[in-house]
Amino acid sequence: MSLRLALRPLAVCSALFVFGHVAAAQTKVAVINLQKAVLESAEIKAASAAMEARYKPRVTQIETLDKEIAAIAQNLQSNAGKLTAQAESDLNAQGTKKQRDVQRLRDDLQADVDRDRNEILQKASVKMGDVVKKLAEEKGLDVVVDMPYTVFAKPALDITTDAIAAYDKAYPAAAPPAKK
């Protein structure tokens, strides 16, 4: 059994003890869906659109290669028995090379998209944390709990939309560059 699992009951009891004492002092609590707040911010929506535009040429290149591979496969199927052994071998080699190329392009694209997305989300999450802290101070909140860890909360306690609005005000999305 790991140390983390062994200490979990102690941590829960400690939290209940602390919250029990704090609750007597009328603790002000709010909940937030932090993931939703980050993903629905104008900055993230703009970054998503920018990423889509940035990677569109590579997606188009992959789609073109997919069509070429399908055309080679169709050619091989429709001309089965009509092609010379050398022509069939050449088409198979072309198809195999294009399949390797498209797989490499897909892997590279996915790695680049994942890296960029994670970097953008990490920065936005840090900024959202600062916004939530400031919002909690403004509203006089003692505790803000992330929704995924909440069993039940009244909708009136949800500050997700307030956090999105505060984030968008603090970090307005950059206007997309004008098309020429």
Automatic annotation (TrEMBL):
<dbReference type="GO" id="GO:0051082">
    <property type="term" value="F:unfolded protein binding"/>
</dbReference>
<dbReference type="GO" id="GO:0005829">
    <property type="term" value="C:cytosol"/>
</dbReference>
<protein>
    <submittedName>
        <fullName>Outer membrane chaperone Skp (OmpH)</fullName>
    </submittedName>
</protein>
<dbReference type="GO" id="GO:0050821">
    <property type="term" value="P:protein stabilization"/>
</dbReference>
<dbReference type="InterPro" id="IPR024930">
    <property type="entry name" value="Skp_dom_sf"/>
</dbReference>
<feature type="signal peptide">
    <location>
        <begin position="1"/>
        <end position="24"/>
    </location>
</feature>
<comment type="similarity">
    <text>Belongs to the Skp family.</text>
</comment>
<dbReference type="InterPro" id="IPR005632">
    <property type="entry name" value="Chaperone_Skp"/>
</dbReference>
<keyword id="KW-0732">Signal</keyword>
<dbReference type="Pfam" id="PF03938">
    <property type="entry name" value="OmpH"/>
</dbReference>
